[in-house]
Each structure stands twice: as C-alpha cells, then as structure tokens.
Write a structure and sequence with these properties.
By secondary structure, this protein is an alpha/beta fold. The chain is built from 13 helices and nine strands. α3 (74-84) packs across α7 (145-159) and α7 packs across α10. It binds S-adenosylmethionine.
Length: 361
C-alpha cells in the first residue's frame, strides 16, 4: 500500500460530480484503489457508514461487489441511490414531458412556506420550482422518482439568490423561471450520459444515523469498510443542503441535530464544549467489530481539525480507538488534497493533507 501514489494528481473527475454538488466527496481513485487492494472476498459486502454521494458504493458496484452505504443526510442518500440504480430508459422523455407540462400549466401551484423563501428565491423562480416539484410528485412510487428528485435537487442553489454552494451571501444571479427548466433538463441529460453502461451489484442505501446501526441493517458480514467520516470544524453537510432539503420536504434541523463533527459549536469559542469526535468514533468502531468478518480491513480517510488554534489529529485518534476496540492498526498513509479538485473550499479549516488509516480485524 505504501508504494502506491495516493495523491492521484492526474485523476479525472467522475461524470456524476458535475451534476449534483456534494462537499468533501471522494475522488473515485481512493475507494477504487482501496477496494482493489483490500477486498479479498473475505465478507459479504463493502460498507461505507458515511457514504455521502456514494463514491465507495459506485466503485464496489463497478467490481461486482455488494455494498451498504449509510448517511444521515437524505440528499446524500438520494444521490447514492441514483448513482447505483439503473436509470429507466424513458427517463429523458419523462423529463421533457414534465417540463412541457410545467410551461403550459395554467393552474397556480402553491409555493411551500419555506423559511426566508423570498430572500433566497425570486417570485418567478419559486413558482417554477413549485410547478416542477408538483409535476415530479406525480411520479411518486415509480422507478423514475428518485432520478427526477435528484435532478430537481441539483439545480436548487443554481437558481437561488445564494452566491454559491458554500457561500450564504445574497447575489442576484439574473436567473429566471426558464433557467429552472433548462437546468433541470441539463441535469437530466448529464445523468443519462453518466449512467450509461453502469454494471449491477446490489447497493443498499440507508438513511440513518450510523451510530444507531443495528444488525438488521446489515445483510451479512462486513468484508471491507471504506469511508471518510465527518470530522469537527470541516464541513456542515446539513447547511450545504438546507434549501435542497426544504424543497424536497425534509427537515434540515433534524439532520443538523444528529450530524457528527462540523457543528456551529466549533466556530464559536463560547459554545465549544469539548472534542466529542473520539467518543463517537469509538462507539462506531466498537459497534462494527462483531459485524466484521475475520481479517476484514477498515479504511478511514480523514483530515486533521483545527479548533480555536489547536490541532486535533483525527487519524491518530481513529488508530488508537480502533486498537482499543480490538482491531489491529496496519498503517496510516498520508496524501495531499488536490485543491483544484476540491469543489468546496475549506479555507477556514486550512486542510491540505488527509490520512488513510487502515485497521484490520
Ligand atoms: C466526508 S462526507 C462523506 C463523503 C463521501 N465519502 C463521498 O464520497 O461523497 C461525511 C458524511 O457523513 C455524514 N454524516 C454526518 N453525521 C452522520 C451520522 N451521525 N450518521 C451518518 N452519516 C453522518 C454527512 O452527511 C456526510 O455525508
């Protein structure tokens, strides 16, 4: 493992990454290389307990290996499901029909009463989004519904008055209702292209708190874990998807309350009550231990946290609590994060390197 060039400077972005934004997603080469080298068929499936946009699941599927992905964030689960499911052939036609319907629909569709909606969305955009969501909801319960929601979710920030995915500042970007429909169709076309030739192996996606995992959630023994856990003062995943969740009918505040790591408490000194990351990871690792097959590898890709000037070595914490939970610490590899490839800026946290901690049962 040490002889591998982990920086992957020449890596090309996955076609999925240009459709729906997701912070701190893996470059495909990381889970791909870990699975290629550490999966020996020793268990039943690959697990990613913080699957985000589902890159680990995609890479397991590419190799015909079953996988389970868990994430608290319903937008993450939506992206992961769409990424690992087949797209029905009629998908693009359905999207075009939906847009046609919206453009000719005379009935007024009620705009949902979302907090601060008039600040973040212009009136004509609100109406277009409400119409689009209404038409998409006619497909609830069908096999295209997730992919439709995914395309809808992918355009929310683009058509809003929010400066960018990571900047909550007001900016009139000059978008109109017709942009809502054209961006939606653009996402649908990109998705159709990205999905072409996707092979099949079961990928199960669970929308829940990984710390509340039970044996019923897992279809057998874990053969390999490949994950990048959330860690303090890095990202607030719920915040990046706040309006996506509102428009899709989810409750971002509920997600915020259970999200590990990047909480407001780390930014404000007065609110900082201590570093609970070690306790949470210790709970997770002790819980995973009995579900892992003998010799199963666990790979945690993680950066270091800087909180009120103090550096917390999350890689060392994981290695230590892993050993306390009964695993062996095989190695910790270091890699540079390619800032040009990072779609979400982490200037406040100054994260330039990350570590790959490898444990084994
Ligand atoms: C670093 S991101 C994972 C990104 C992923 N590797 C990818 O390629 O997209 C960490 C993820 O942990 C999720 N998360 C935070 N707290 C969680 C919890 N208690 N249970 C499950 N997932 C959680 C976040 O929603 C986020 O998607």
């Amino acid at each position: 493992m040490k002889s591998i060039e982990w920086n992957f400077t020449e890596a090309k972005a996955s076609p999925f990454s240009s459709i729906h934004p997701y912070p701190a997603k893996f470059i495909n080469e990381i889970p791909a290389t870990l699975i290629k080298n550490l999966w020996h068929g020793q268990g039943d499936f690959v697990l990613d307990p913080f699957c985000g946009s589902g890159v680990t699941l995609e890479e397991a599927q590419r190799r015909g290996i079953s996988s389970v992905g868990i994430d608290l964030n319903p937008i993450a689960c939506l992206i992961s499901r769409v990424r690992t499911n087949q797209l029905p052939e009629a998908f693009l036609n359905i999207c075009e029909a939906i847009v046609k319907d919206c453009q000719t629909l005379d009935t007024i569709i009620e705009v949902p009463a979302l907090p601060n909606i008039d600040h973040w969305f212009k009136a004509d955009i609100q109406e277009a989004l409400a119409k689009l969501k209404h038409s998409i909801d006619n497909y609830k319960g069908t096999e295209v519904y997730d992919a439709l929601l995914y395309c809808f979710s992918s355009i929310i920030v683009k058509v809003s008055n929010q400066d960018s995915d990571t900047r909550y500042a007001f900016r009139d970007k000059g978008k109109t209702a017709s942009d809502v429909y054209s961006y939606f169709l653009l996402s649908a076309r990109k998705l159709t292209k990205a999905m072409m030739g996707n092979p099949h192996a079961e990928a199960r996606v669970l929308n829940k708190n990984s710390l509340k995992l039970t044996s019923e959630d897992l279809p057998g023994k874990i053969g390999l874990v490949v994950t990048s856990p959330p860690y303090p003062n890095a990202y607030e995943y719920w915040l990046y998807h706040k309006y996506r969740m509102y428009w899709l009918g989810f409750n971002p505040i509920q997600v915020k309350n259970e999200e590990i790591g990047a909480r407001a408490q780390y930014f404000k000194k007065s609110k900082y009550e201590g570093y609970d990351f070690a306790i949470q990871m210790s709970e997770l690792l002790s819980m995973l231990y009995p579900y892992c097959s003998d010799d199963a590898y666990l790979c945690f890709v993680i950066g270091r946290s800087k909180i009120h000037g103090e550096i917390y070595c999350n890689d060392k914490i994981i290695a230590e609590i892993g050993m306390n939970a009964g695993f062996r610490h095989i190695t910790t590899l270091q890699r540079e994060i390619n800032c040009k490839r990072k779609s979400f800026n982490l200037s406040h946290a100054r994260i330039k390197d990350e570590y790959i901690v490898i444990l084994q049962k």
